[in-house]
Amino acid sequence: MDGRLVAVKKLSLDQSQQGESEFLAEVRMITSIQHKNLVRLIGCCSDGAQRLLVYEYMKNRSLDLILYGKNDHQFLNWETRFQIILGIARGLQYLHEDSHLRIVHRDIKASNILLDDKFQPKIGDFGLARFFPEDQVYLSTNFAGTLGYTAPEYAIRGELSEKADIYSFGVLAWKLYERSSVIDLVDPKMREDGFVEKDVLRAIHAAFLCLQPHANLRPPMSEIVAILTRKGEMIRTPMKPAFTDRRRRKDEKLSWDTISEAFPSPLKSDSPSLPQSSH
User: Fold this and answer.
1) How far is CA 219 from CA 89, 242, 253, in A?
2) Do both 40 and 178 map to the same domain?
3) What is the mean pLDDT of each run of 10 residues along the chain (279 residues)?
4) Which residue of 5, 83, 134, 150 has the fewest C-beta atoms within 10 A of its own C-beta?
5) Which domain holds residue 44?
6) Burial class, 128, CB count within 10 angstroms (exposed 0-12 / middle 13-18 / buried 19+)
7) Region at 17 (left for phi over 0; alpha for psi -120 to 50; beta for the rest)
8) Rounded to two decimals, what is the model's pTM?
9) Where is the protein localized (predicted)?
């Protein structure tokens, strides 16, 4: 190597050859795409039963270690949180719409979002990703992904499309507003950080659009990016998300309380339970 730091992902083959399939899938996928919000593969190695993937080194590691780590010194201010949300959205827009191949990641979650030295996000781990023809829904008989981030139509019926990634993005975007295990419309620390209220509202609106229980109600990522960058209007009013948690602090005073009923608070945690459809 040339002396630079790298990250190495090690895959070991098992009797079912699942490791080999995952290795080949990830190499094929990551070498066919390139975007500033996707982790870059530097090289790979196959030696006996070992398979190594060599990626660019990400100084701030993965998003989950910061959001749910024991140390509070790496609190992400509003500007950084929004930068992460927007970067993930742009990465997904590229995979779904702008790449020469339509790609569904299938495992968008905090631990698969890597952060560089400036906290720019990059989507990683393409071991479960699939190529899809335009406007095609794939019926999967084997569940893959992470419960808690999974779209209802995929978790329950095995229907997989880019809409599943969009739902997972909504879950992840919402998690950036959590404070410990309590769900509020806005993390109290962000109010101390001088955030722009209208931008927070746009981010929440975009997240809830992505959390719609029916796949055809979720907008494409290009529309989400437009909303986040103020190039798109917040015209749609989201339906009640597929799973909700209505708990809020009694002393919470928000200037947008008038719309809180249209945007019930979703997801509480990473607990491994299937999302429940609303009635």
Assistant:
1) 12, 15, 30
2) no
3) 78 63 77 91 81 88 83 70 95 95 92 95 89 73 80 89 96 74 49 65 90 93 94 71 49 39 39 35
4) 134
5) 6-56
6) middle
7) left
8) 0.77
9) Cell membrane
